[in-house]
Amino acid sequence: MNLSHDQKIDLYKKMVTIRLFEEKVQDLYGRGLVPGLVHLYIGEEAVAAGVCANLRKDDYITSTHRGHGHVIAKGAELKYMMAELFGKKTGYCKGKGGSMHIADVEIGILGANGIAGGGIPIAVGAALSAKKRKTDQVTVCFFGDGASNNGTFHEGLNFASVHRLPVVFVCENNLYGISVSQKQHQAIQDISIRSVAYNMPGITLDGNDVLAVYEASGKAIQRARAGEGPTLMECKTYRWRGHHEGDPNRGRRYRTMEEVQEWVNKCPIKRFEEKLVEEKVLSKTKIKNIWEEVEKKIGEAVEFANQSPFPDPQDIFEDVYVS
Amino acid sequence: MMKESEFPNRTVKIRAVPAARRRAEREGIDLSPVEGSGPGGIILEKDIEHFRITQGAVEGTLVTGKIHASSLARKLAEKRGVPIETVEGTGTRGRIMMGDVIKATEKPVILIKEKGIFGQTIPMTQMRKVIAKRMAQSAFTAPHIYFFTDVEMDELVKLREKILGDFEKQFNVRLSINDFIIKAVALTIREFPMLNAMVKGEEIHVMPEINIGLAVAMEEGLIVPAIPRADQLGLGKIAEMRADMVGRARLGKLKLEEIERGTFTVSSLAQYDVIFFTAILNPPQSGILSIGKTCDQLALKEGQVITKKIARFGLSVDHRIIDGTVAAAFLQSLKKRLEDPTFTFMHL
Amino acid sequence: MRELTYAQAINEALIQNLEKDERVFLMGEDIGKYGGIFQVTAGLLDKFGPERIIDTPISESAFVGAAIGAAMTGMRPVVEIMFIDFTTCAMDMIVNQMAKIHYMFGGRGKVPMVLRINIGAGRGAAAQHSQSFHAFFMHIPGLIVVTPSTPYDAKGLMNTAILDENPVIFVEHKKLYATKGPVPEEYYTIPFGKADIKRPGRDITIVATNAMVGRSLNVCEEFSKEGIEIEVVDPRTLQPLDKESILESVKKTGRLIVADEGPVTCGVSSEISALVAEEAIEYLQAPILRVGSPYTPVPFSPPLEKIYIPDEEDVKETVNKMKDYL
Amino acid sequence: MAIEVVVPMLGITIEKGKILKWLKSEGEFVKKGEPIFEVETDKVVTEVESPATGILKKIIVPENIEVPVLTIVAIITEKDEELPEKYRSIKPEIAPPPTPSMLSQPQSHKVLAPSVRISEEDYDIAILGAGVGGYVAAIRAAQMGARVLLIEKDELGGTCLNHGCIPTKSFLSDIKIYTKIRDSDIFINGSKVSINLKKMVSRKNRVVETMKRGVSMLLDSQKVTFIRGFGKFIDSRTIEVSSNGKAKIFKAKNVIIATGSQAASLPMAKIDGKMILSSEEVLDLREIPQKVIVIGGGVLGVEFATIFNCLGAKVTIVEMLPQIILMEDEEVIRGLKLLLEKQGITILTRSKVLSASPRRKKVEVTIDQERKKERLSGEKVIMAVGRTPYTNGINLERIGIQTEGRFVKVNSKMETNIEGVYAIGDVIGKMMLAHAASAEGIVAVENIMGKVREIDYQKIPRCIYTFPEVASVGLTEAEAKKKGYDIQIGKFPFLNNGKALAMGEPEGFVKIIAENELGQILGVHILGENATDLIGECLLAMNVEASIEDLGEVVKGHPTLSEAVTEAALDWQGLSIHKSKQF
Fold first, then answer.
1. If residue C304 lies in a helix (H) or strand (E), which one and from where to where?
2. Using CB atoms within 10 A as the burial measure, which of A290, B309, C205, D378 is most buried?
3. CATH no. for residue D480?
């Protein structure tokens, strides 16, 4: 699959956007400006960026508690995201959802989800709907290694497989379910082998290689669009931060700093950047410009969030039911 | 199926918290005159307490047990005629002290003072609220029609004077003109059952008993205790009951039943210089008789100018169920009875 | 007496039980190395090893079910579900299995286990991590529901819970974990079904559960200055419920406020209100009032969440409403 | 641009963190993401990463200090950037709240500790003056759960304990025994008995010390904070207390002024402490003067006259009014005057002091007795013309306290015109007696603590410690008549009381005034031995509203002086047993 220079730059820009957005959130959270719980995507950018680059606007995704990257990659607007993180009325969820529940159904984001595995059956349902409505929309279902032990995973895969639904299951295996390492929570190494049980293709790949992700997910999405059924993709990656902001010492209770450093060295952005520089797609100046441009956009989003009002007290009763 | 409005509406709904109801029931207190101090006028338990203290409870329901009062307070209460058990004690452990008795005796005075100050806004008492509501309800639901007649009272006055002394000896009560009127009205109603009827929904209930209410003016408003089966009672009994109920009305010690049983009302302003007046029906009754002052009027009798004692009677009836001719005939008949009292009251 | 936090008190109870009864073991997500998301099980892995402190996969249905199986066959599992919100992932196990087994098997077989959950909003964790639907478990026959409000109660009730032969839902509260209070070092138990009068009073009874106990107590003094003495009754266990103590208090004061963090609709407070309406209505001097969450999901935005949480202000407002009946 | 380093939000239940260790020092270069300090919370120890690359310019919060999350702990600047002005004077204690956070304030619920007080003011009640008004108020307040601050510039116990009631009673007790023996012919050598003035004074001092220690212990046991110093108002809720040139500020929600009074002086007869004495100096007298002039025939005057008369001095009382102890019932006045005069005291009424001039060994006093000038002289002049309220320098004007004359104006709840400020005792000048001050103190405190209490002076007794004593309560006969009561008098002389006769104290009587309608006791006046104790049962009777008949029904032990009270009550009904009809 050959990508144009522009496409490559776009991919790069997406990853940078996710990175800088998350770093900003990290800082703001520490300063008490972002309330609640945040789970940062830093280190895993290649997966969201690579997969979503294959999606159309009318395709669907379901996301997770660690969902900022997915929704940015799917095209969510930074300012509405930031406003939501701030709990402002102008946010995607009018301030009612927060970090874990960002959704924009119009651009196919069926919601980040606070329940591990909670999005899997929903993705299956979206795919079922596309099939019933006879569209060629594809649903991508993001989830983690932890969720792959949940009943919803098995029940969802089985259902999708039986009905040959246009859904791609993207497992972001970042090696830990909160503090529990993959070794402790499952007896297998490659989650993709579970595809065998449900008679669908399964693939394990380097989740920090954005091109590999782009390519593999592209195939799976094409297969789904063609009505050939679901695929299980496992992207091995790593979160640099702790499970959530406030996870002490970036998770050193259950992992070593060396291990973290090892993965920092495998930074997906740096790897791609080096490649693009090598291929002369990007120059140092261009890179600098991209970072600055993205930083500016994020600054604007923060500004927007800051300026926005909090919800009114009576808003609490709105949207409980469809009126 | 009956509509809700068709169920007989026995009592005005009274809002009271459950504990107040329990207390009232246990102590046999009628809730209707109790003024509620809770939100929206709901009656709280303390209101009953307060009611007992200020109004005195309905007969025979006073707290038993020892009264905790100082020696002087007891004496003072006795002297001033304050029932000590109605006084709230503020001394140690609720002991009743002299000051408490004094306060208790001062209460009504304060009430009167509050009444007539210009420019002051006075909240309606519970009683006033009930009256206001009932009067408005009556005026706006029952189309009133009024009839007047002059009744020659000479014979009646003479009769009364004649029997007054003996009557008092026998019945231990002073006979009043009203007693005659009550009796005469009751007897007349026997002939005109519609005057004893009540409108309930789309039905006319002709009440089985003739209970004549007598309007009694009080500080707080009008109250109408009724003499039951007045048509069957002797004048003595009527006078006795009338005197008793008027007395208790002034003390606020009437029973609810006594107020609610009336089927026809007599309202007299004879003690004032009021010649005649119209009255508003006391719902759900369909007739009310208003009696003005008895005046001397000139009249011709066999070519001679004489004076006659004339009282102008007014009758207000509910025109929904009583036609003009019926009302006129009733008044006519009543007039006759009173003008020829010897015959009317002969067998009494 | 020495003071511990609510979290430490539960931690100590778990340690004492793990030490004295080898049938006791713990399961749950991130309870080992991490020490539990709220640090209630901190240090236990080091002390008792991975055989007894088991970090589970994110498989609520599986590990709750596994605990049921283990309990039926002689063990005494204590299971942590990270947030009450996640119990729904194991609802079949809880409602159809755990609660029913003893009855449905005609008294053969029992499920002596403890399911630790926590309720409470207040930290912007939004709709799926902040709920307080513990009333749901009160609705299911066969379950014991425990709602400790203080560190002292937490330890004593946990000890009783582990001893009990029935499945116990142990409802903790996020915002209580850091609160401190005196806790004896020795092992002690607090009987189920025995309410604690946290503050005696004359005028108004507040039956308060869990964090609402402290919130209610916090306003008592202020009203005391006005001459209004509030009695705070903490049932401590919702199932069994100490009806006598509640009724006794209401008969004394004649006024009832029920304060529970869950939504009032079909909530704990509904049940307690109904109890009083059925059995002591003639003592009531005022309508029963309830303090609880509004009938909405938990909102994320701080100003909305603040409105959502029934706090001191809400208790005060309710008492003020009740004051009209004094 | 300077970057603030804060203790970050460390998760959803953490509210505070302690700076455990700084991993970088001031001035050091730090990189973004590099750990710069360790923070400890109740749950975890965690490193905090630098939010920016630059110089760690200033560490605001040092190690081992616990701060709320989001507190600014350090500032990072760019390489050559100066520390911005606003951070220069920042101190850890007053670290400003962080960038306004939208988070709800951390709340901690102190469960199981309902008695924990959250008060914006330090004390519930501050009391200025620790006399019998002030200290009694303090104790009652503490009993009712208030935090109390008691301030005294002088000695605990005030005038009563130090220069009034108690010391004089110590003297009177000694003198009583002395005169009994001296004037008796039963004791052998009785007439030669003499008094050791020095020992009498030192016994008095011991009594006073014992009592002061007692009061001090009582205050301690009630956890009343007692401080010595001069207290004055800064505002109605703030008191400055100074002693030895140091001042301290206290806050209190309520203040009770109980500063008492001081002996009044006359312009033409200034107290000099040597020859013209106030009660204070009198009590420490070293020798017995031969001639004493007492100016003022009130309670103090007659008491001092009694003391000096018994000690052997020739005493003259000079009273401006037509009578001594004018507030008392006329019969009592007459009776006492007669008895005092019988004891050898000269009483000059309607006599105005024109001048009092100390000469070398005596004081010359000129008086105007009903337009006639008279000259008197004595070694000592005792000023007993009354007492003036002590309000100097306590800033009453500053907070706008209303006064009546020089006395602080209060209502029957002891409230002044300023909310939260109360006054009791001599400073309000209602009934300048120790027990009235105590009663007023209790009323003030109970009102503060939410009870509604009012004082009823009609039920507070007056006591005069002459030989014999005078005690009274309520209305005098004249007052009762003036008020229009239909009264009757019950009276019983001690001459008819067995015990009084046996004791050799047959003087005086019990007089009870009660109205006819209810038999309400309106006043009781006792002149006689132990009158001040005997009045007790009458006080009870009046307080519980017993009728005079009730009082007459009490069976007394025999023989007792108190039988006289019962007899007087019976006499009111014409039923006295031991009184012949013609008395």
1. helix C302-308
2. C205
3. 3.30.390.30
Contacts of D547 in chain B (CB under 8 A): 71-72, 75
The whole-chain average pLDDT of chain A stands at 94
D touches C, CB cut-off 8 Å, minimum 3 pairs: yes
Question: Per residue in C154-184, is it b (16+ CB within 10 Å) or e — as a string?
Answer: bbbbbbbbbebebbbbbbbbbbbbbbbbebe
Q: What is the CATH number of the domain that holds B238?
A: 3.30.559.10
CB of D5 closer than 8 Å to CB of D73: yes
Neighboring chains of A (3 or more beta-carbon pairs < 8 A): C, D
CB contact (8 A) between residue A88 and residue C33: no
pTM: 0.53
CA distance C285 to chain B (A): 5
B134 in Cβ contact with B282 (< 8 Å)? yes
Residues B149 and B250 in one domain: yes
Is any Cβ of chain D less than 8 angstroms from the Cβ of C227? Answer: yes
Cross-chain CB nearest to C306 (options D104, D113, D114): D104
pLDDT score recorded for residue C35: 92
Q: Is the confidence at residue B117, as pLDDT, over 70?
A: no
Which carries the bigger pLDDT value, residue B251 or residue A233? A233
Residue B106 domain boundaries: 12-124
Domain boundary pick from B92, B124, B156: B124
Choose the weakest-confidence range: A92-96, A194-198, A317-321, D311-315. Answer: A317-321
Catalytic residue status for C139 = no
Q: Are residues B85 and B231 in the same domain?
A: no
- Are D127 and D246 within one domain? yes
Nearest by CB to A30, from D9, D12, D45: name it.
Answer: D9
Q: Are strands D521-528 and D509-515 parallel, antiparallel or unpaired?
A: antiparallel
D105 domain-assigned: no
Residue B81 belongs to domain with CATH number:
4.10.320.10
pLDDT for C166: 96
Q: What is the CATH number of the domain that holds D14?
A: 2.40.50.100
Q: Is the pLDDT of residue B67 over 80?
A: no
Kindly indicate whether the domain formed by A5-310 is annotated with CATH number 3.30.70.120: no
Handedness of CA D534, D539, D542, D543 (dihedral sign): negative
Flag if D546 and B98 touch (Cβ within 8 Å). Answer: no
Question: Which residue ranges form the domains of chain C, and what is each CATH number?
Answer: 3-182 (3.40.50.970), 196-323 (3.40.50.920)
- Domain termination site, one of B124, B152, B180: B124
Q: Which residues pair with D526 in a beta bridge?
A: D471, D510
Cβ-defined contact of D111 to C311 (cutoff 8 Å)? no
Nearest Cα residue to C318 out of C274, C297, C287 = C287
Residues of chain D with pLDDT under 50: 93-121, 583
Cβ contact, residue pair C284, B39, below 8 Å: no
Q: Is any Cβ of chain A less than 8 angstroms from the Cβ of C296?
A: yes
* Confidence band of B82 (pLDDT split at 50, 70, 90): confident
C-alpha atoms less than 13 angstroms from C-alpha of D2 in its C-beta half-sphere: 16
Say whether both D18 and D60 belong to one domain: yes
Task: Quick: pLDDT tens for A3-27.
Answer: 999 999 999 999 999 999 999 999 9
Mark which of D458, D480, D507 sits at the end of a domain.
D458
pLDDT tens, position by position, B192-206? 988 998 887 778 888
Quote the pLDDT of residue D86.
79
The residues of B carrying an active-site annotation are 319
- Residues D248 and D161 occupy one common structural domain: yes
d(CA D287, CA C38): 83
Is residue A211 scored above 70 in pLDDT? yes
**Complex confidence, ipTM:** 0.53
The whole-number pLDDT of residue B61 equals 33
- How far apart are alpha carbons B266 and B178 in whole angstroms? 9
Q: What are phi and psi of B99, to 5 degrees?
A: -60, -35
